Amino acid sequence: MALIVKKFGGSSVATTAKIMAVAERVLREKAPDDKIVLVVSAMGDTTDELLDLAGQISPHPNSREMDMLLATGEQVSVALLAMAFQQLGSVSVSLTGPQAGVMTNSVYSKARILDVKPDRIKSELAKGRIVIVAGFQGLSPEGDITTLGRGGSDTTAVAIAGALRADSCEIFTDVDGVYSADPRVVKAARRMKEITHNEMLEMARLGAVVMQPRSVEMGKHYGVPIHVRSTFTQEAGTIIREEYTMQEREFIIRGVTHDTNVAKIAILGVPDRPGIAHKIFSALANAAIDVDMIVQSIRNSDQHINDIVFTIAKADLAKAKGLAEQATKDMGVLRVVVEDNVAKVSVVGAGMYGSPGIAATMFGALAEAGINIEVISTSEISISCLIQADQVKDAVNAIHSRFFQG
Amino acid sequence: MALIVKKFGGSSVATTAKIMAVAERVLREKAPDDKIVLVVSAMGDTTDELLDLAGQISPHPNSREMDMLLATGEQVSVALLAMAFQQLGSVSVSLTGPQAGVMTNSVYSKARILDVKPDRIKSELAKGRIVIVAGFQGLSPEGDITTLGRGGSDTTAVAIAGALRADSCEIFTDVDGVYSADPRVVKAARRMKEITHNEMLEMARLGAVVMQPRSVEMGKHYGVPIHVRSTFTQEAGTIIREEYTMQEREFIIRGVTHDTNVAKIAILGVPDRPGIAHKIFSALANAAIDVDMIVQSIRNSDQHINDIVFTIAKADLAKAKGLAEQATKDMGVLRVVVEDNVAKVSVVGAGMYGSPGIAATMFGALAEAGINIEVISTSEISISCLIQADQVKDAVNAIHSRFFQG
After folding, report:
1. Per-domain residue ranges of chain B
2. Is A39 in a helix, a strand, or coil?
3. Cα distances (Å, whole numbers) of residue A370 to A339, A363, A389, B2, B81
4. What is the DSSP string of B155-203?
5. Which of A75, A86, A96 is nearest residue B58 as measured by Cβ atoms?
6. Strand order across the B137-139 sheet
7. Which of the residue ranges A41-50, B143-152, B264-273 would you say has the lowest mean pLDDT?
8. Whether the predicted pLDDT of B368 surpasses 60
9. B21 contacts on A by Cβ (under 8 Å)
């Protein structure tokens, strides 16, 4: 007997025919004694239709009421999926997020799960029922309905799996696993059998879009293995877990990621005095602008002048430039230069810490492809290079080829 | 300051434009200190669309899951209406039936309200908010979502008004009050300013479709005056209350109703022995068939033979005939005769008990119009006659004219 949580996204339940197909697949893959909890998103375009209705009423709808509105999307799909199981002769029951004990904070539209109280789920499982939980939603301490924001149904599934100490948490999605690079960019990209939570988190942070970081963090927190699989094929997929179970890893580098939603700001000619970086980055932090790579380099040590270069999301560029100029305007800074025609390529691998040649190999691959590196940053499990945006495809292929086909 | 509960049906909130219009009207009619609770149905065709989705999955969907599905309809409309108030600069909050404390039994799809725990509504009102409650739905003792069946939002509104001891409960609907007869049948029908709960209950039982009996019963139970008004006009409407407040009533008869959803069964030649009627009507009761008028007449007192005639809803005719035949098959009953081309016309008025001429006046009106009476039955506040269905319009007009224009 296994206790398995399975999550199906909006495209998997977009029509009543697809909802029937999900029920059929779950029953086909279920061992007789398995206990199954399903977490389901809203049907296909439902959320967009609800957003459109709200937009007809108000350009800036109240976020509490927006959550009240949007939560109906999953409630519809769980009820229909429960009917589908019953039509196939199985016993099932649907639960809203609040009914399933998904407790969140009160930050409407991007609430965080604080706790899952799985009593109701457990009692329904004990009755032999397949339990179908509305993803993406929970209950605030005030008793209001909240939604979790992007990737919320994944997070619901992982949190429930953690609270139930489930044997596995399967995320059914429109890709069939985690690849060594984006398969649309790198033809030879390989599907990974296993990857660690930390590697997946770093890959998500650096541009991989398979899983939202929140759900992977949740998996790490609860020690839940997350099995990423395709709704539309029978492929084995990728298991995201704490540690590798396979004796030997094929590759130290687990993924090459890229991110083109990045812009660069260079503050040139900053006087080399304490507190200046603090002033600049405090101003950005107060405006809730996420700064990614930061490099300070010495322009001229005799004149005590530095350059500070950092990257941010493209959408924040204009605001960040204004703040940087204001923060440095009395410092005799020469210039604030911005560039949004840049991209970041990264390699991720938990084993790279003990492998000193990784950075050299990455830089060599880029050099050989004639690609100039503008900024470099590293973490314990990743190395990132900022390059020109029009070279990103070449860069990812060159790096991937060196690490995975070399 | 007044505490007012107002209920708007599905046609009042069928589009986002109509939802805005409801919010504007409520604000226009609101005195500055008034506390307002709104009870709202699902938008126009939403329920039909959800039923259609369920029908695509299963011909006989599970009723618990059906309630889970249908309850989303009101959740959408309350969230949108709350957004509309906020767009107009008012403070409002939407609540599902369960959040509003509407506690029901577990009879899915036609649950009965057992209690309303209005703590959340009260605390939101105390914060100066307009409270918008999803009608038609509640919470079962097991923590599941239930729906109340036909007219459920009216019942929600009256139950909440009762629990809050509201000053009034206004039901906005597509007619502008309770009429002395169906205005589509009787051109001269008058709108009543006032009518008692008991009269309204009797009129609903006898064919008037303005209000479902459940909500009127609830109003009677809590002593809540129910004010029936039109969504689309500013007419004064009709107040349904315990006792008349006006010094003198204009008319003893308050309404002439008709019902064509009726069929007649005659059991001819029943032996005059104790226990036979019991056997027949027990069989019908066990099959959950509602019997309306019952008349037993003596055919031949020497031979001790009676005829028993009763009426039922048309849909139950075939089943009832079979049961009647079976229950009497060993009794030497001559024949079971059925007829579905019949209709019932009734007069209702709480004051008729002390006015002996009412029945004579009604029968006289029918006789003068050349209409034969097949069965007569009376209650403390009504008299009903079964006639041929094709004469129903003439009958209602003849009776109405005698009592209201005579």
Report:
1. 3-173
2. strand
3. 20, 11, 14, 78, 60
4. HHHHHHHHHHT-SEEEEEESS-S-BSS-TTT-TT--B-SEEEHHHHHHH
5. A86
6. B113-116, B102-104, B137-139, B145-147
7. B264-273
8. yes
9. none
Residue carrying structure tokens 């029978």: A234
Tell me which of A22, A80, A117, A146 to substitute to probe the interface with B (most B C-beta atoms closer than 10 Å). Answer: A80
Sheet with strand A375-379: strands edge to edge:
A255-259, A342-348, A382-388, A375-379
Cβ–Cβ < 8 Å for A9, A41: yes
The rounded distance, in Å, linking the Cα atoms of B269 and B332 is 8
- The reply to whether A79 touches chain B by the CB within 8 Å rule is yes
- C-beta atoms of A76 and B75 within 8 A: no
Residue A343 contacts by C-beta under 8 Å, 6 or more apart in sequence? A258, A259, A260, A262, A386, A387, A388, A389, A391, A392, A395
**pLDDT surpassing 90 at residue B185:** yes
| Pairing between β-strand A137-139 and β-strand A145-147 as defined by DSSP bridges | antiparallel
pLDDT tens profile B241-280: 988 876 556 678 889 999 999 999 999 888 877 788 888 8
As given in the structure block, the two tokens for residue B165 are 């001891």
Cβ-Cβ contacts under 8 Å, B68 against chain A: 75, 78-79, 82, 94, 96
Which tokens belong to A281?
């980055």
Chain A environment of B65 (Cβ under 8 Å): 79-80, 82-83, 86, 94
Closest CA to B345 of B281, B388, B404: B388
CB–CB of A154/A170 below 8 Å?
no
Q: How far apart are CA B381 and CA B201, in angstroms?
A: 10
As a dihedral over the C-alpha atoms of residue B95, residue B101, residue B107, residue B111, rounded to 10 degrees, the angle is -70
Strands A3-8 and A168-173: parallel
Per-residue pLDDT reduced to its tens digit, B102-129:
999 999 998 999 999 999 999 999 999 9
C-alpha span between A301 and A298 (Å, rounded)? 6
Model pTM score: 0.83
Burial of A165 (0-12, 13-18, 19+ CB in 10 A): exposed
pLDDT of residue A77: 98
The CATH number assigned to the domain with range B3-173 reads 3.40.1160.10
List CB contacts (< 8 A) between A64 and chain B. 93
Alpha-carbon span B272 to B251, nearest angstrom: 42
**CA of B317 vs chain A CAs: smallest distance (Å):** 31
Which residues of B contribute to the annotated binding site for ATP? 7-10, 173-174, 179, 184
